Amino acid sequence: MRKKVVLYFFVLCLFPFTGYGQVQTFIREYTYRMSEEDSRRTARNKAHEQLRAMVLSEVGSLVQANYSSAMTVSGSNVEDLYREVITISTVGRVGLKVLDERFDEFTYWVKAELTVDVGAINEQLDKLARENREVSQRKEAQTQQNRQTEQVQAQITASERQITALANRETAARNQRNTTTARLNRSREERDRADREHNNALAFLSANPASAPARRAVEMASDSFEEAKANYDEMSLQAKIADEAWTAADSELKQERERLANLREQLRRLNSGETFEQIAARPSVPAPQQQQQASPSVADAPAQQRTAQQGGAAANEERAGMFLLSIRPEFVAGTSVMSAGATIEIGAILKNGFYLTGEIAGGAIYYGGGLNLGVCINRDGFVRNVLGVNAGYRNSVLTAEFTQNDKVYISKNGTNTSFGGAFWKLMFGNAGNFDISNKILFGQRNNPVSFRKNYNDGSDGFVYEEGLNITYSLSIGYTLTKRRQAR
What we know:
The protein is of the alpha+beta class.
């Protein structure tokens, strides 16, 4: 007897745990007090609902007891999750079998057997809790992703502003370096010219040792050479400083551009769903532009080599071709006619000094145009001489009027054409020039000199003077010359 009591005790203690995960059966009684509105059917339904609620409440206590604690999952504890399970899921249905019941005047009593699938409820609860955890983790990950994306975007904006400032600084430093390099080249030429003049003065003195003018010439040439040499040394130092400043600015600009490219790559990968940890574990391959920027360039060469290359570039720029535009008033005097007008000339002076332009001209009684081919002497000097030939067409119209009794009774136009010749041009200045152009042109003239009336057949006829037409053209005005960028 004593062994049976102990066995019953252990069964009662283990009952909640052995029932968890299985179909649980409950025997319960309930007494419902009827109101005047209740019928036997409504009283029975209400009593059955109360029995089901009582059993589900007991099962809820059983479920919570089998969790370590009423832990919070995405803002809801186990009790809330259990309530959600039995509300929206079929596993919360309670089977009910009436064992006994009776009605009296005011009450309804029922004894019933109720069954609940506690295991299914527990599985559904675990599934719902797991889903809530996953939703919470996704929200947290998305929040962190958005925060990281905003941080990278802010860094990109700041880097773009920094690149703009660094680009302006690099441009200013590059312009200063180019200007200083050009000045260095000019000072080198002045030093070399002063050195040649000094050597020539020494040679003249050695040939005339007793000549006082020769000694003074040597002294003056020596002073000029020392001054040019000191100027060259100073310009060399300035060129070195400007080159180092540009190198530092260019390097800083390239580093910031590389940083911006990396930030943009990070933003792209963040937008594609990668995390910071994944990006750090798998760095991106530099883009082609970054690889090109990282490749060796003139900026990475030694300062002396770069200065020499830049000096060559400056020299090439000085020897580049020049665009030419000229607008000049013009006076024209031919064998038979004189007039005034204007000419417009457009063309270029090539780097080898070759002069090539086209022009159009016109005035009160003449018109035409042509092509000018020549050679510019002292192309880079202040005074330029251009000698060449002209080919084209010009015509000066001579109108002959024939009178009778002081009245004009007939008129006729004559032609004074030119097809080519030679020209000489003088230009004073650098970019804006004072221009004097002289031309001698050769052609043919055909002008009416008399009128004859044939009374036999009633026909009229003009008598023409024909011959060589020599035309002199003088034009004075403004000529713009602009150097073109050397490639």
